[in-house]
Design brief:
This protein is α+β, with helices and mostly antiparallel strands. The chain has 5 domains: about 80 residues, OB fold (Dihydrolipoamide Acetyltransferase, E2P) (Beta Barrel), CATH 2.40.50; about 60 residues, OB fold (Dihydrolipoamide Acetyltransferase, E2P) (Beta Barrel), CATH 2.40.50; about 200 residues, no CATH class; about 150 residues, no CATH class; about 110 residues, Nucleic acid-binding proteins (OB fold (Dihydrolipoamide Acetyltransferase, E2P), Beta Barrel), CATH 2.40.50. It is about 30% helix and about 25% strand. The chain is built from 17 helices and 31 strands. Strands 1-2-3-5-4 form a 5-stranded mixed barrel. The protein has a 5-stranded mixed barrel with strand order 6-7-8-10-9. Strands 11-18-17-14-13 form a 5-stranded mixed beta sheet. Helix 5 packs across helix 7, helix 11 packs across helix 15 and helix 12 runs antiparallel to helix 14. It is globular, with a radius of gyration of 29 Å.
């Protein structure tokens, strides 16, 4: 119920309190002034009134949001203090000691059936962990206070990671490792830490002038494995396992394989993986069916047999959501006794698998599928490069040659559906035995990668359709079509190339593919490809099917990586239930069922929100760590000139990446020359006001590396001849009539659409 519209004039104290109590949203001075129709000097009087009310203890003393003392505001910021069996417990984020007694704790509960359904990564809580802050709507019930999360908020700057530095006078400062934070903070209490050490610190007082105090010393910031350690701490990635989870994993690892499993040990199934793979959770086999088609088996580690719902091991896996892969280490979703041993499909050893049997016709159309719990014995674990070498040399064994032949049939089906085909290079960091960087390059894309990927996609589709056939719960991998807003922006950008995008037509991946195939000039094609990539939405997990736009598939789930993705484990459990594949644990000290727990069925949407959040957390941590490795690799090459491509355009400068390496850095507009540059937001370009010099998204140009900071991962570039020097752009020039537009905008980042079989499609 909203407060009645008041009469004009300054409100009374009681009227302000009534409005704050009855408001449905966060209340600040602006909202109060608007509600009471205050103008001019009345706003000044309101400011004084609110100050007096705060001093009298009637309201809190914040300037941006107010609530009545002695209770919990209807909309407020909460801080998570505990995760109890997946349920977040929170307290008010800011509650002064003299502000009355806060409720003991509030349970964060998702509201169902109110308002439009939440979609994808915009879900309010994401993956909550202790310390997270959430904007929530509170409610007092007969059993205590609960809160309905509305939005997950950025972390407070209470814990800062940085490196201690000493100035000429011997005073210590904390240099942050986050490249978005530009200023060092004075250290009030070093806690025994020394200059040069990586530390965690928190504010020493209420004012920023009080400086910070060191709370933990993490060691040498440039030591081996330090870059991944920075990411782990910064993003709050769970690192160690509780003793009870490890104990349960060790018990589960001793479970004998049930003789009721289908025996597939006679099939020459192979696992094709990166040469440095830490685990092997999938393997494939195919042979001709004698009628022009193919029979195939995709065998996936049967993690659900070992990790059962409700136990300490399951809670630990759900908290992580996925494994996180760094160049120097992996933070596994499961203890290593499972992830790197018992569940890993190693050559020559009998392993528990969930097998997806598929049949394809000569055109790659799937004609049948079935799922069984099986025992497999992997014939060989082959690196992508070695498998490709054998195929190219004509020395591949029959079972390996059959995989390539079956893949050619799958390729026909892939061409028919025409999924989005964008060139997305992946950086690879190689380390030596001491953990030092040996090389950094873009990972080569082979047919061997595509073979495995297409078989994994087929198995993922089969899993989704199998569960749909039984009306069973499905954790879908959803990639929605581009929003109209992004399509309009893409249309405006394409118009600068005198190319058209009709928004009235059905937007399909094939439409973008045909658009790119029609561009002959490689520089212009790179520009358009970058724009198409930025128009895509981010993929996520959810119980409601909205299709996978990028793969051009109507139903898609993740089934093929249960060692490292909790989503796949949930799909396995659903298949166990739907197709009667249960195998109770023969030990009384382990959870009996390996299917979906009733609580998980009822709460699948919240679990999907959580694991979508942990995936985004892992992606950010992995990307930032790669940036730090690249900056460390380049630190000794400051002053060299590199061939670069523009990957982003802002009013304050250009973002560029080194071609063939992937190091991303800033070219400040101040180093581009003496003239003023206009920002053309629609064309993603900067243009010189007098010379007409133009820098656009995708342009190639030589740049000198001016700075490389391994701690933040930040790079800075300048013209080859130094600041103010001439840069010769090698991009495609745009029509003169399109030059000179001046709009302000925001830099976008490529969307996360690479979510296929082995990766994150």
């Amino acid at each position: 119920m909203k407060a009645p519209r008041p009469q004009p004039g300054l409100p009374t104290r009681q009227q302000v309190l009534d409005f704050i109590a009855q408001a449905e949203e966060v209340v600040g001075k602006r909202e109060i002034a608007k509600h009471f129709s205050l103008k001019g000097t009345e706003k000044i009087q309101l400011k004084a009134l609110l100050k007096d009310m705060a001093e009298e203890g009637l309201i809190d003393g914040k300037r941006t949001a107010y609530h009545a003392m002695g209770g919990v505001p209807k909309v407020t910021v909460l801080r998570v203090v505990e995760i109890d069996e997946g349920e977040a417990i929170a307290i008010p984020d800011s509650w002064e000691a003299d502000s009355g007694t806060p409720p003991a704790r509030l349970r964060l509960v998702e509201q169902r059936g109110r308002g439009p359904a939440r979609r994808g990564p915009s879900a309010p809580t994401g993956a909550l962990k202790v310390g997270d802050r959430v904007l929530a709507r509170t409610e007092e019930t007969g059993t205590g206070w609960i809160a309905h999360p509305m939005k997950k908020l950025p972390a407070r700057a209470e814990q800062t990671m940085g490196v201690i530095e000493a100035d000429g006078a011997g005073k210590l400062w904390l240099a942050p490792i986050d490249k978005r934070v530009r200023h060092a903070a004075p250290i009030a209490d070093a806690g025994g830490a020394e200059a040069g050490q990586l530390v965690l610190a928190e504010p020493a007082g209420r004012s920023h002038r009080a400086g910070v105090k060191v709370t933990a010393v993490l060691g040498d910031p440039l030591a081996p494995k330090a870059f991944s350690l920075i990411a782990i701490h910064k993003h709050g990635i769970p690192f160690g396992f509780a003793p009870e989870a490890v104990a349960e994993a060790e018990l589960a690892a001793k479970l004998p394989l049930d003789t009721a499993r289908e025996d597939l040990t006679h099939l020459p199934i192979v696992a094709i993986d990166p040469v440095d793979a830490r685990d092997h959770d999938d393997a494939i086999w195919a042979e001709p069916d004698g009628a022009g088609g193919w029979r195939a088996v995709v065998a996936i580690a049967d993690v659900s047999f070992y990790v059962r719902p409700g136990g300490a091991l399951d809670r630990a896996a759900r908290l992580r959501g996925n494994s996180v892969y760094f160049p120097d280490r992996v933070v596994p979703m499961l203890p290593e006794v499972l992830s790197a041993d018992v569940c890993s499909l190693k050559a020559g050893a009998p392993r528990a698998a969930l097998a997806c049997h598929m049949a394809f016709d000569g055109h790659g159309k799937m004609t049948s599928w079935r799922f069984t719990r099986a025992t497999v014995r992997i014939a060989e674990v082959i690196a992508y490069e070695e498998a490709q070498r054998r195929i190219d040399a004509g020395t591949a064994e029959p079972h390996l040659a059959h995989l390539w032949e079956a893949w050619s049939a799958l390729g026909k089906a892939r061409e028919a559906r025409d999924p989005l085909d964008l060139d997305l290079p992946e950086r690879q960091v190689k380390l030596d035995d001491q953990g030092r960087i040996a090389s950094i390059a873009l990972r080569e894309r082979l047919d061997a990668h595509r073979v495995v990927e297409d078989f994994m996609i087929a198995a993922n589709v089969a899993a989704a359709k199998a569960l749909e056939a039984k009306a069973a719960p499905v954790v879908y991998r959803v990639h929605e079509p581009p929003s109209r807003e992004k399509l309009v922006a893409l249309k405006d950008y394409l118009a600068t190339f005198e190319r058209k995008l009709a928004l009235g037509q059905v937007i399909t991946p094939g439409l973008f593919n045909r658009m790119l195939k029609g561009v002959a000039d490689e520089a212009e094609k790179a520009l358009i490809m970058e724009a198409v990539l930025r128009s895509q939405t981010q993929a996520y997990y959810g119980p409601r099917n909205a299709g996978h736009f990028g793969l051009a598939l109507g139903s898609y789930a993740h089934f093929t990586s249960p060692i490292r993705r909790y989503s796949d484990l949930l799909v396995h459990r659903a298949l166990v239930d739907a197709y009667g594949l249960e195998q109770p644990a023969p030990r009384a000290d382990l959870p009996a069922t390996s299917g979906l727990a009733p609580r998980d069925r009822a709460d699948l949407a919240r679990i999907c929100d959580a694991i979508s959040g942990t995936e985004r957390r892992a992606m950010e941590a992995e990307r930032e760590t790669l940036d730090r490795y690249v900056a460390a690799w380049l630190a000794s090459r400051v002053g060299e000139v590199f061939e670069c491509r523009i990957t982003g355009v802002q009013r304050f400068g250009l973002f560029a990446t080194i071609i063939g390496l992937g190091g991303d850095g800033l070219v400040p507009v101040s180093v581009l020359g003496w003239e003023r540059f206009h920002h053309d937001e629609k064309a993603h370009a900067l243009e010189g006001e007098e010379s007409g010099t133009r820098f656009a998204l995708g342009d190639r140009l030589p740049l000198r590396l001016a700075e490389a900071n391994p701690l933040t991962g930040a790079l800075k570039f300048e013209p080859e001849d130094g600041p103010g020097g001439r840069i010769e752009s090698r991009g495609a020039p745009l029509p003169l009539k399109k030059r000179g537009a001046h709009l302000a905008g925001r830099r976008g980042r490529p969307a996360n659409i690479r979510h296929q079989g082995r990766g994150r499609r």
